[in-house]
Amino acid sequence: xxxxxxxxxxxxxxxxxxxxxxxxxxxxxxxxxxxxxxxxxxxxxxxxxxxxxxxxxxxxxxxxxxxxxxxxxxxxxxxxxxxxxxxxxxxxxxxxxxxxxxxxxxxxxxxxxxxxxxxxxxxxxxxxxxxxxxxxxxxxxxxxxxxxxxxxxxxxxxxxxxxxxxxxxxxxxxxxxxxxxxxxxxxxxxxxxxxxxxxxxxxxxxxxxxxxxxxxxxxxxxxxxxxxxxxxxxxxx
Length: 237
Fold this sequence. Notes:
The chain is an alpha+beta fold.
């Protein structure tokens, strides 16, 4: 159901900007899978999934298709004719590959990358000729992580032809499902980036867990006092 909703949301988005509602609103996001996880998450991290998809090519170009990686972290929707026909080739092999953002240039301007970078590439088959351009923008939906040390008030999809300079793409940001969506005009690299929010800190000399425990004990003590006072008053009545 989650995959179906994401696909329909992406597919309807290219028909009209008004059709784009919050993606997967009201559901809980899955645990994010990193190519290079933060040290405190390395022991539980699972390898992210890429995707290889076969698209049919007709006289007018590629037939439209929604392509989701197996872990649902990256979705690409191509419209009919987005990739032009090419000689006698009858298929396009489309790949979505997760990468460590540290292997590419950073987004710049005080921005940080949220999660993985994805390389989007395609070749005509059986010739193996590389697809160098697309005729219609593709809809890209990327999940992003949110941790104690990595948060932002706003997330956007950024695209790059070669991974050296990045351009922000206009789109939507769903905080509930931790997904950013945008229309991207070419193949290459995509990522989610944002301005990092300050890391929350605990009061000096105390840990966050210790402060919470003390608060719970104080509330429990007050409740016990109130219950005890009530019993005393009833016994006197």
